Amino acid sequence: MESRSRSFYVLATFFALFLLFLYGPTITIAILSFQGPQGGLTFPMNGVSLYWFFDLFEEQAVGDIWGAFRRSFGLGLMVMVTTVVVSVAAGLAFRKKFPGAGILFYLAITSLVIPSILISLGVGLIFQQLGLKIHWATSGFGSQLTWTLPFGLLIMFAVFNRFDKSFEEAARDQGATAWQTIRFVILPIIAPSLLGVALFGFTLSYDEFARTLMTAGSYNTLPLEIFGMTTNVTTPVIYALGTLTTLFSFLIIGVFILTVFFMQKRRSRAGSDAGKGV
């Protein structure tokens, strides 16, 4: 019994150290972002204030922080919607076996193991050879899909492998068309998983650096802008920006979690009401 208790404390300590290692850099940046007006980029802190957060909303001498944020947010929404639509369509298609399905699947997820910088370089070269303009909304959009789509596909394949087809059969027995079955039966059932795919798509796009490095063109996304600031910004304003973007990321995650929670609560309430009606 004593050895088991000792093992528990060892594992708990290891997990606590892992969390410290995981979130320690973010916590350090958050602390340094509250430096006073005369503060620097290192400890010890010179005063405590919100000065650098207010400074973020002033016109910066270098860079375009809020323009980069708008581009990253818009690109994230584009990638999110495309990832969800393509993943659901592919998940529905792969429910039936067809020649070359295995090869197509492995080709789709191979981009996960190819170095991201090579993907960025390759997409940029293709656009150049075709005479197309390299832009964050075109070439950047395409390169980021090579990162988000495989995750969406893997999630949808797992969901449809466990999907009970009897629900679809019951809908067809009631005279529902194929589209009605998808819209009113399949999509409501897999809705929480769709939100998971959407969250993956948005967050992976929002903070992607390597695959956007050579495909964003002359307008930076937020990760590229922050990287550029590390070479020419010598004030804690960069830490304030990091703190705000981290909070924004947690806000997005929280919105998705709450949405799933209320969807499940609504579904359970509908199920109980139906049971009472019976």
TrEMBL record:
It is found in: Cell membrane. InterPro entries: Bact_Polyamine_Transport, MetI-like, MetI-like_sf. It is a multi-pass membrane protein. Pfam families: BPD_transp_1 (PF00528). Residues 69-262 form the ABC transmembrane type-1 domain. Coiled coil: none annotated. Keywords: Cell membrane, Membrane, Transmembrane, Transmembrane helix, Transport. It comes from the Bacteria. The chain crosses the membrane at residues 73-94, 103-127, 147-163, 184-204, 237-262. Its main location: membrane. Belongs to the binding-protein-dependent transport system permease family. CysTW subfamily. This is ABC transporter permease.
